[in-house]
Amino acid sequence: MLASKKITRRSFNRQVAGTLLSPLVASTASVLFAEDSSAPVTILPAEIAYLMADEAERPPSLTTKLERGRPGVKRFWIENWRDPAQSFEWTVRVEHAGKYEVILMVSAPPGTPIGIEGPHDKLSLETTQPGFYGYYWDRITLPTPLRLSKGESRIRVHLLKEVTEGRVGAALKSIELLDVKARPGFDARIRAFRSDASWLTDARFGFMCQCGEWSYPPHGPHKPWPEMVNDFDVEKFADLVDSTGSGYAIWSATWATYFFPAPIHAIDDIMPGRTSKRDLIGEMADALAKRDIRLMLYYHLGHDQSPQNGSWWSRNWVSAADKSLLIKNWCSILTEVGERYGSRLAGWMFDDELIYYPMPYEVVGKAAKAGNPARIISYNPWIQARGTDFEDFQFGEGFRGSDALPASAHGVWPSGPMKGLQAHGNFQVDGPDWGINRPDEKITPPFFSAEKAIDFALLAAQHNEALSWNLEMYDDGSVSEESLKVFQAAGSAVRKIYPRKQLPKS
Q1: What pLDDT score does 305 carry?
Q2: What pLDDT, on a 0 to 100 scale, did the predictor assign at position 308?
Q3: What per-residue confidence (pLDDT) applies to 2?
Q4: Does some domain include residue 502?
């Protein structure tokens, strides 16, 4: 377990670049949560209510996880939870008395007993997940519901024994409550929502890069927008992807800055000058399809408030308590993009769930599948458990496969933090980052040898886990030849056993 230093997204990615990660670290039309710990959380009978740990009444010894050096809108969790005397408490206001399902987003060493108390019940659970980097995240549904009376009452969560293991002890993100009478309907909607992601497993692996407006050439100045898009050689890129044997490619529509490489009116309506006349995504989808390769898009909301990103985020964000503008704009963009590309766009990967959990996942998910109900989607919880069941596959940042998933599961996690999702991981082949957003950056040597790459690629393929290999890419589409050869060697080894399948003809 790596628990000796403070974890951030950047340090995490550096540490796991050459490490085999366990996958175990890895809704409704409205979202209900209080703006402060004194306001009761309203619990409606047909919707999920979120009791956020950072809004609970709690002692000052419980601290908020922060990302050092990168303050912003990311909403982490409450940690340093060690003593049974440390508790989280909320006041809830219940519209209708009844039994409510309890789901905990919690990190605690295996075997940690946790108590949940309501006005009528004292429930408990025991954690089971192994640790990574000092955390043990899981999404746990208690087998017994909590009885709540109409009106206001209190809910309390506390440890039943002291936690002595780990750098930060236990941690709590949230409690989700749902009327047990609403659960059958929710499950039916989840089943109707989900798309068949088995093609991802059949593909075995894909090519990923984060190349866009932010990208630089090997030497020299950054190109003004949209020159990078206008100059990009799509056929050369498609040949590069094809040379690896990939069954799909993940292109970053946005990342370090929010500039979208296609003419999307919904983006222009929010902030003009952030789109291109050239439809790079459409051309890319067509070029890849000719080679039997699907296209998925990685998507960043644009919350990195760097000078080059200007005021994009201020046009979308109000607060964690009011995400209505963000959801409205996001859905508008996703709907237009989805309808524009239809079946040519196979999937979405949405980064930074730390920004938007909790939110109306079902609403955003339906917008993400506009134009293609078969499109698969995923949200990035980082090292936390999945934030919703209204998604199709595991985002898997840093995950490079595991023998913990039985081959008989056909690539779907049968239990644990990613339960019900198609297994998938994405990781850096080289660095120093995921993409090149600084001048004169030299790509590092690959983080692992060809021999090691072949070993974990074959292991993941045997266990039906799809892997996405991220190579740093300059603005002209060029990559490190050394890194490419490592990827090609691993791809060739997998394809000898699992040939690439032809795409269905439209």
Answers
A1: 76
A2: 79
A3: 30
A4: no
Q: Where are the alpha helices (DSSP H) in 307-349?
A: 324-341
For residue 377, list its beta bridge partners.
348
Number of domains comprising the chain: 2
- Residue 132: both structure tokens together: 């990574």
| Beta carbons of 395 and 381 less than 8 angstroms apart | yes
Query: Within 13 Å and on the Cβ side, how many CA atoms surround 219?
Result: 0
CA 418 from centre of chain: 11
Q: What is the pLDDT of residue 26?
A: 33
- Residue 142 class from Cβ within 10 Å (0-12 exposed, 13-18 middle, 19+ buried)? middle
Identify the H or E element spanning 482.
helix 481-497
- Let me know if residue 384 belongs to a domain: yes
If one counts every other C-beta atom within 10 angstroms of the C-beta of residue 415, the result is 10
In angstroms, what CA-CA distances link 65 with 42, 132, 489? 26, 16, 40
pTM, entire model: 0.93
User: Residues 60, 63, 68, 74: is their CA dihedral positive or negative?
Assistant: negative
102-131: buried (b, 16+ CB within 10 Å) or exposed (e) per residue? bbbbbbbbeebebebbbeeeebebebbbeb
Q: Please identify, among 180, 203, 235, the residue that sits at the C-terminal boundary of a domain.
A: 180
The answer on 204 and 175 residing in a single domain is no
Residue 41 structural domain: 31-180
Residues 135 and 209 in one domain: no
Q: Which residue from 160, 153, 91 is spatially nearest to 124, judged by alpha carbons?
A: 160
DSSP H or E stretch at residue 87 = strand 87-94
With vertex at residue 378, the alpha carbon angle to CA 307 and CA 277, rounded to the nearest 5 degrees, is 50
**Per-residue pLDDT at 69:** 53
The structure tokens 């969790």 sit at 77
Kindly state whether residue 3 falls inside one of the protein's structural domains. Answer: no
Q: What radius of gyration, in Å, describes the C-alpha atoms of the chain?
A: 23
The predicted pLDDT at position 382 comes to 95
CA atoms within 13 A on the CB side of 335: 12
Q: How many CB atoms lie within 10 A of CB 212?
A: 28
Shared-domain flag, residues 168 and 255:
no
Q: Within this chain, do residues 160 and 221 fall inside the same structural domain, yes or no? A: no
Same domain flag for 235 and 339 = yes
String of b and e for 2-12 (b: at least 16 CB within 10 Å)? eeeeebebeeb
pLDDT score, position 21? 46
- Asked if the structure places residue 130 within a domain, the reply is yes
User: 161 with 216, same domain?
Assistant: no
**Whether residues 96 and 222 fall in one domain:** no
Residues 200 and 324 grouped into a single domain: yes
Where the chain has pLDDT below 70, the residues are: 1-38, 68-72, 506
Angle between helices 183-193 and 361-368 (to 10 degrees): 20
pLDDT at 13: 64
